[in-house]
Design brief:
heterodimer, A: mainly alpha, MetI-like fold, 2 domains, B: mainly alpha, 12 helices, about 0% strand, globular
Chain lengths: ~280, ~300
């Protein structure tokens, strides 16, 4: 019996190692590269461990020339801005769809959901022209506003399904007090559906964080507004021979993201699976 | 009756912000792109002063070999990545149930990481991993004696196609695994146990019990992944830039080149419209199938 159990543990360990190798190797390789002195990353034979480990690359990318932390700040501004606007609009829409008896609730749901199936390539050129006309190119707003709209389909879906499960009775007292829909949403529904709104918020935040096509198009190479994905890609394009810098930049920007994802893992997975099973 | 009218009024009022945002950044741009596609338009001119050329952009597009090549590549890419996503995702999902309980949590945490990294950053990571001089993938292949010279992953046409598929499935397998874990968890363990008692082997159990029972989830995963794969942009743009030549350009990345590199908004719009129609076809099929298949559950 115990040998069988041991065998199971050993096989499990092998599986775990294989999966980790598959999932983590690019990340680990970036980490190793980031500690090599600049120029030695092209040494042949390939060094699988930095011979003279250094923190110089981190100093470089955080220094005045690259200021990678500025991209992190930009990403945080854009993703949080889009998150706040998107959640506010989605919560209002979800309330209308799930709690009010009005004739257009099904068309309203459809209207929000069809928007989520649209590939970005078909909206990118008109949005670029729109932002140019509004004088918003190379500003955070050019990314915040469209991303807030892109958040709506998924957030509305998730929040609607939470709202539907809240008993109508808890609103009754507030209705008798004469509270309007906006007050009922803020003081009753939002606290009651907090976990759902939270999970919608995390997915919205991650969606904007990883968004690339729009961010690249409207930032016009302006480092002061560029988000992380745009900066990392342009670094890797600009410095074909300085991969230690690219690696250090990648590691710095991925650490906070990965930490966040691991902390909120459960919320993310449940939100994602719910989002795919729409009907 | 007045209460009902009141609810309709507040309902519509509450919908206004979301509806306005969606119209402004989704529905109106779709209409605008459609209009652009009928004009001879470049990046800087206003479409109102551009020449209306009817279906010329579409005719030109249809007559170019590049279009049909890109179209075929996008579809082929979608089919192959979805199949790989499914196969690897299923392996990962089964593995997560097989491993001893105290490793399960770690396994899932590891699996979520490829999904979480922004796609274009993945592209840059893979570009370094697949570097033909000092990339570890090529180096390990040489060291193990599988090849003589490190393969030119991003320069050779066939290898570049393979690299794009591989990099995209690296992320896709993870997310597919999480979908399938949800489906597998719904299978009552008594069904599997009784098959074990009947003496069915592991493969037999998988193909005649597990797979049929998890089919609805497989369907959802296939639809979800094919919709993303048809519109793929980031990984192509970041990993090969569509190269060598235009060998790995997809509909989206090619449309993007027309927009912002050749600055031909009209022609690019025609490409974008075709991409949109492809995604829409998959989505409509999906909605139709879901209605058709899952009706009995209501």
């Amino acid at each position: 019996m115990s040998t069988r159990k041991n065998k199971h543990t050993v096989i499990s360990l092998i599986i775990l190692l294989a999966v980790s190798l598959w999932c983590l190797s690019p990340f680990v390789w970036m980490g190793i590269t980031s500690f090599k002195p600049q120029g030695t990353e092209f040494r042949i034979p390939v060094e699988y461990w930095p011979q003279e480990p250094t923190l110089e690359n981190y100093r470089t990318v955080l220094g005045p020339r690259f200021a990678i932390h500025r991209s992190l700040v930009n990403s945080i501004i854009v993703a949080s801005g889009a998150l706040i606007l998107g959640l506010a609009m989605s919560t209002a829409a979800a309330y209308a769809i799930s709690r009010l008896r009005f004739r257009y609730r099904y068309p309203a749901l459809l209207f929000t959901q069809v928007g989520g199936m649209v590939p970005p390539i078909i909206v990118i050129a008109p949005i670029f022209v729109m932002m140019r006309a509004a004088g918003l190119l190379s500003t955070h707003w050019a990314m915040i506003l469209p991303n807030a709209a892109f958040d709506i389909p998924l957030s509305t879906w998730l929040i609607t399904s939470y709202f539907t499960n809240i008993p109508f009775e808890i609103e009754e007292a507030a209705v008798l007090d004469g509270a309007g829909p906006v007050r009922r949403i803020i003081s009753i529904m939002v606290p009651a559906a907090a976990p759902g709104i939270f999970s919608a918020g995390i997915l919205a935040f991650l969606g904007t964080w990883g968004e690339f096509m729009l961010a690249m198009t409207v930032s016009l190479g302006q480092r002061s507004v560029e988000t992380v994905p745009v900066t990392i890609l342009s670094l890797s394009r600009m410095f074909e021979l300085q991969w230690t810098w690219v690696a250090a930049g990648t590691v710095i920007t991925l650490i906070p993201l990965t930490a966040g994802v691991l902390i909120f893992q459960r919320v993310i997975v449940s939100g994602l699976t719910a989002s795919a099973v729409k009907h | 009756m007045t209460a009902r009218r009141d609810e309709t009024r507040s309902g519509l009022l509450l919908m206004i912000p979301a509806a306005a945002a969606l119209i402004l950044f989704t529905y109106y741009p779709i209409a605008q792109t459609l209009i652009y596609s009928f004009f001879d338009l470049d990046l800087t001119t206003d479409w109102l002063s551009a020449d209306f050329i009817g279906l010329r952009n579409y005719l030109d597009v249809m007559q170019s070999n590049q279009f049909w090549y890109t179209f075929a590549f996008t579809l082929g890419f979608t089919v192959v990545t979805v199949l790989i996503d499914l196969a690897l995702g299923m392996l990962f999902a089964l593995a997560s149930f097989y491993v001893v309980p105290r490793m399960r949590g770690i396994l899932r945490s590891v699996l979520i990481i490829p999904w979480a990294i922004p796609e274009v950053i993945q592209a840059s990571m893979w570009r370094w991993m697949l570097n033909s001089d000092v990339g570890p993938v090529g180096d390990i292949l040489v060291r193990t004696g599988l090849v003589q010279e490190p393969p030119l992953f991003l320069v050779d046409q066939a290898l570049a196609m393979g690299s794009i598929v591989f990099a995209y499935s690296w992320k896709g397998a993870s997310i597919t695994a999480f979908f399938l874990m949800g489906g597998l968890a719904l299978i009552p363990s008594s069904v599997i146990e009784s098959a074990k008692v009947d003496g069915a082997g592991a493969l037999r159990r998988f193909f005649s019990i597990t797979l049929p029972m998890v089919m609805p989830t497989v369907f959802v995963a296939v639809m979800y992944r094919s919709r993303s794969a048809i519109r793929v942009f980031d990984i192509v743009y970041g990993l090969t830039g569509g190269g060598p030549g235009n060998a790995t350009d997809t509909m989206s990345s090619f449309a993007y080149k027309y927009y912002f590199q050749f600055t031909q908004f009209g022609r690019g719009s025609a490409y974008a419209v075709v991409t949109f129609l492809l995604v829409a076809a998959v989505s409509v099929y999906y909605i139709w199938q879901v209605k058709h298949r899952f009706q009995y559950r209501d």
